[in-house]
Amino acid sequence: MNTASKPPLTFRKMHGLGNDFVIIDGRNNAPIPSVEEVRAIGDRHRGVGFDQLVVLHESDEADFDVVFYNSDGSTSGACGNASRCIADLAMAESGRDSALLRTEGGLLRAERAGQLIRVNMGPPVLSWRDVPLARDVDLNALPLDGTPSAVGMGNPHCVFFVEDAEAVDIAVEGARFEHDPLFPERTNVEFVQSLTDGSLRQRTWERGAGETLACGSGACAVAVAAHRRGLTGRDVTIHLDGGDLHLDWRNDGVWMTGGISYAFTGVWPR
Ligand SMILES: N[C@@H](CCC[C@H](N)C(=O)O)C(=O)O
């Protein structure tokens, strides 16, 4: 058995509106975690705990090439709140007020906006109105009233508009889609309520992470779905458990503006 110990993993802990991340810089041949280690680090009781773990790699066209892992070890093509956090790291390193991130979901541009960070999450790539369902589904048979909107933002989202977002049992309604053949790659699920001031209230069940305090790519999907339903203009404020995001859907994609927080650095022994 190889008893040689592997070099420890150094990481940064950050969050965007309470959606929390462990960020590991894998550049310069620095050690990166195995999927088993991702799950162990993500354990809220025995590890560090995170909603997503982010690994940074050298890039030939961006500040970083980025890989996003959920706490169950699955990967995702997008992670909006983490993208704001690592964009801040990139800008601090480069001294510029802008950054470029290459993710599985595409090339993302980010920039400072005062004390906040703006990220262009790209165009929405699909919705139920544009893409025929994989099979003939009676959408009204889905667990909640009404027909959801399916919007891709580098990752899949199923957006339900409900009368009272606080009344939704997220652990039940969100988990329903973890093994639904309608979503062969699973999906993130957002439950949204329109408010009288034109803003939206969003609660989120994340694929591979469960209920989170905020989901940035989900907020982008919600903004697109709400606009397509005539509920909002092309820009909207969304209230999440962890705080507010501002979304504006422009011709070059959906821009998301919000805050980030830097928590601490740490070392994961191996
Ligand atoms: N919290 C993220 C979304 C993270 C990935 C998602 N769970 C998925 O698997 O697609 C965000 O802020 O976008």
Automatic annotation (TrEMBL):
<dbReference type="GO" id="GO:0008837">
    <property type="term" value="F:diaminopimelate epimerase activity"/>
</dbReference>
<feature type="site" description="Could be important to modulate the pK values of the two catalytic cysteine residues">
    <location>
        <position position="157"/>
    </location>
</feature>
<keyword id="KW-0457">Lysine biosynthesis</keyword>
<keyword id="KW-0963">Cytoplasm</keyword>
<dbReference type="Pfam" id="PF01678">
    <property type="entry name" value="DAP_epimerase"/>
</dbReference>
<feature type="binding site">
    <location>
        <begin position="216"/>
        <end position="217"/>
    </location>
    <ligand>
        <name>substrate</name>
    </ligand>
</feature>
<feature type="binding site">
    <location>
        <position position="155"/>
    </location>
    <ligand>
        <name>substrate</name>
    </ligand>
</feature>
<feature type="active site" description="Proton acceptor">
    <location>
        <position position="215"/>
    </location>
</feature>
<protein>
    <recommendedName>
        <fullName>Diaminopimelate epimerase</fullName>
        <ecNumber>5.1.1.7</ecNumber>
    </recommendedName>
</protein>
<comment type="similarity">
    <text>Belongs to the diaminopimelate epimerase family.</text>
</comment>
<feature type="binding site">
    <location>
        <position position="19"/>
    </location>
    <ligand>
        <name>substrate</name>
    </ligand>
</feature>
<dbReference type="InterPro" id="IPR018510">
    <property type="entry name" value="DAP_epimerase_AS"/>
</dbReference>
<dbReference type="GO" id="GO:0009089">
    <property type="term" value="P:lysine biosynthetic process via diaminopimelate"/>
</dbReference>
<feature type="binding site">
    <location>
        <position position="188"/>
    </location>
    <ligand>
        <name>substrate</name>
    </ligand>
</feature>
<feature type="binding site">
    <location>
        <begin position="80"/>
        <end position="81"/>
    </location>
    <ligand>
        <name>substrate</name>
    </ligand>
</feature>
<feature type="active site" description="Proton donor">
    <location>
        <position position="79"/>
    </location>
</feature>
<feature type="binding site">
    <location>
        <begin position="206"/>
        <end position="207"/>
    </location>
    <ligand>
        <name>substrate</name>
    </ligand>
</feature>
<keyword id="KW-0028">Amino-acid biosynthesis</keyword>
<comment type="subunit">
    <text>Homodimer.</text>
</comment>
<dbReference type="GO" id="GO:0005829">
    <property type="term" value="C:cytosol"/>
</dbReference>
<comment type="pathway">
    <text>Amino-acid biosynthesis; L-lysine biosynthesis via DAP pathway; DL-2,6-diaminopimelate from LL-2,6-diaminopimelate: step 1/1.</text>
</comment>
<comment type="function">
    <text>Catalyzes the stereoinversion of LL-2,6-diaminopimelate (L,L-DAP) to meso-diaminopimelate (meso-DAP), a precursor of L-lysine and an essential component of the bacterial peptidoglycan.</text>
</comment>
<feature type="active site">
    <location>
        <position position="79"/>
    </location>
</feature>
<feature type="binding site">
    <location>
        <position position="70"/>
    </location>
    <ligand>
        <name>substrate</name>
    </ligand>
</feature>
<keyword id="KW-0413">Isomerase</keyword>
<dbReference type="InterPro" id="IPR001653">
    <property type="entry name" value="DAP_epimerase_DapF"/>
</dbReference>
<feature type="site" description="Could be important to modulate the pK values of the two catalytic cysteine residues">
    <location>
        <position position="206"/>
    </location>
</feature>
<feature type="binding site">
    <location>
        <position position="52"/>
    </location>
    <ligand>
        <name>substrate</name>
    </ligand>
</feature>
